[in-house]
Amino acid sequence: MQREIPPLSVLCLRTASSSPSSTPLSSLLPSPAQRLYLKLSALPPPPYTPKSKQKDFQTPFITDTVTDTVPSLITSTNNNNNNNNNKSKQRLPSQTILGGNLSTTLLQTYIDCVSETGTLDDTRLTTDFFNILSSSYAVPDTNHDSSVNVKKRKKTELVLECALSFHNCALLSSSTFKCLISSDLSKIITCIDLSGCCGVTTDIFEEVVGGCKVLRRVSVKNCRRLGGLGGLKGGVECLDVGGCYNLKIEEVLSVVKSSKELNEFYGAGLGWEDEDFKELCGILGKRKCKGLSVGFSKGLSKECITDNLCTSKLLSHMESLSLHFLPSVNSSHLSKIGFLSPKLIEIDLRGCVNVTSVGPLLDARAVGYNERNMKGKGEQEVLEVIKIMCRYSGGEGVGKEVEEAYGKLYEIVRD
Question: Region entry Disordered: which residue ranges (predicted)?
Fold first, then answer.
């Protein structure tokens, strides 16, 4: 029986404890689990996938296989084979992850245990730790195949990426991040999540983004000691600086402007004013913007939102839009947003006290969908499922209205 497992290319470190670790350094010597991991890390790496075949890559699954390289600690013997006297030479069946890597699985289990006990601090994550993790992503060299003529060889572009999350790891400081930068793992990290890391300062941020050369997605949400975004590369596609109230709007706009590939920006809680928001929309309107968040900005006027946000240039590719706790947003804005954003699948209207109905959003969305399909000569457009978050907005009738009046016409998820 096959059992699907989540992709093993993402390592997520989470901790809810803020108390320092009381574990003595003597206990940090290699434990049986760590020694087992070192044995497993010597197994062949997971198969790489050329970008041309990325769509055909199947989700890894666990299956029974026969191997003599996996330690007996994780193998299952056949109890019926008691007549075999030489069990030490027996090839034992084991559960193996096809398309994955056993060492990465064990590593994730180890991290989960350390995180949940609240002992994840700078003494745990060393340079060797990150180097061992990077070995799980090693790719065999296939460019020296003797059977292929040198002139006919084509350089295969490999998919070798890693996502790393330190979500809410409040105890981490410069020591851990320096170990990360000095390790081989920094060469393949394309996504890093530092949300809620209280120890992240401007200097640490500059070291991290400077040491990780191929970053495309960066989140420093609620890193309130962060005072600057220096060192951020131009190849970043997604940036989340929500809640970083020590950042200056001018510097944020400068980073957004210089990052030519940026098409997702989440900057709630920075206190946007009309002039700054106008400049932001002007920059993102020239790109295929997929995500935008400017919540908790009481200084935005109705006219500014109408003239700058509700435009086809900005909304034509929008998939996620967060306008939470903006008192200037009203139902008339929703009508324009619904008509101009055919790809919208999520909108956050929580705390928008002047939004008394989401009907204009849904009706305009349906009208725009019908008009585009009538004019279109090619493939018919598909109306995506939309998630509407409208808690604390415009009175108690909004959610009830969605369910009663529109629940039969649209598939809606209400939060």
Answer: 72-93
